[in-house]
Amino acid sequence: MNSTATTAIIQTEHLARAFGTVPAVTSLDLAIKRGEMFGLVGPDGAGKSTAIRLLCGILKPTGGHGRILDYDLERQSEQIKARIGYLSQEFTLYGDLTVDENIEFFAEIHGVSDFGRRRNELLEFTRLTPFRRRLAQALSGGMKKKLALACTLIHTPEIIFLDEPSTGVDPVSRGEFWNILSGILDQGVTIFVTTPYLDEAERCHRISLMHHGHLIMTGTPTDVKSAMPGQIYRFDGPAPGPAYEALRRHWPPTHLVRYGDHVRFWTLAGEPEAREASSELERQGLGPVAIRNTPPSLEDAFVALLDSESREGAPS
Ligand SMILES: Nc1ncnc2c1ncn2[C@@H]1O[C@H](COP(=O)(O)OP(=O)(O)O)[C@@H](O)[C@H]1O
Ligand SMILES: [Mg+2]
Question: Which fold has domain 229-295?
């Protein structure tokens, strides 16, 4: 019997996968509870797709262990596949089939014979009912993603794994997609999602920051922000462009972000260093500069944590 109601439904220890000499995922330790929205966040090449394919039982690990829904990743991947949904980064719909027919196709793949009611529910849920007879190739990018999500959910999986589901989708459709995900969560489905976008990571219960095949930190978005070493200061002055250029001569790019009307400055040393930077600007005739300590964004925290890790020498 499964005991997943009380324990983690996704559990991995040192899970790893190399492709020849390329260590795509070096060590993955995860414990994810039923009903969580969990985000794996990282830049291109971090190992997110490899991690998700390992967790879905599609790729064999080259190291470590994992259990999904209390099934062993290596020995019971068929049982796992029957109870999860996987939306791959390259997921393709059948362009010459209608919305309805695409869902029917995926129902058949999963052996769901009596799918009519479930399909209606999913179309309502993704607001695609008015378009059910339209060919998939004639849908907008956002609508294609929603249809792909409906196909992924047709067999009522307990966990869905979504690999960068909103990459390349416009911001309004992205927002709607994430609202739909929250609705799926309310129905008790556990969601594991990868994203390179920090604003999306903010919407997850917990996230792991991934870089070069391993996890740098796991926690709630608030935990991650409070783990950021150092402080963030906002510099407001008459000439943010030249101010940014002037500061770049003394500080590395990871410490500075240029916005339209201000510069963000990350300092490990805190206020004395921020004051030193603003004095430098005033000496160069780029003042007056008002400095203000501001709470870090998730993006600030991610950049700072990555930078600190590479400084210390990343564990591999
Ligand atoms: N099938 C493969 N063969 C060889 N290298 C691969 C393969 N899949 C991924 N990689 C490499 O593994 C690393 C992680 O890739 P990936 O998991 O796709 O990262 P992400 O999804 O975060 O962009 C990259 O260096 C990538 O080139
Ligand atoms: Mg990927």
Answer: Alpha-Beta Plaits (3.30.70)
Q: Is the pLDDT reported for residue 1 higher than 60? A: no
- The pTM for the full model equals 0.92
Residue whose Cα lies nearest atom 11 of ligand 1: it is 24
CA of residue 165 to ligand 2 center, whole Å: 10
Which contacts qualify for 261-264: CB closer than 8 Å, 24 or more apart? 261/236, 262/234, 262/235, 262/236, 262/237, 263/234, 263/235, 263/237, 264/232, 264/233, 264/234, 264/235, 264/294, 264/300
Q: Which ligand is nearest to the CA of 46?
A: 1
Q: Hey, which CATH number is domain 10-219, 1.10.10.10, 1.10.390.10, 3.40.50.300, 3.10.580.10? A: 3.40.50.300
- Cβ-Cβ contacts under 8 Å for 224 (sequence gap 6 or more): 207, 209, 217, 298, 301, 302, 305
Q: Which ligand is nearest to the CA of 25?
A: 1
Tell whether the model's pLDDT for residue 224 goes beyond 70.
Answer: yes
Reported as a pLDDT band with limits 50, 70 and 90, residue 168 is: confident
Q: Which residues surround ligand 2, an ion (CB under 5 A)?
A: 48-49, 89
The ranges assigned to domains in the chain are 10-219, 229-295
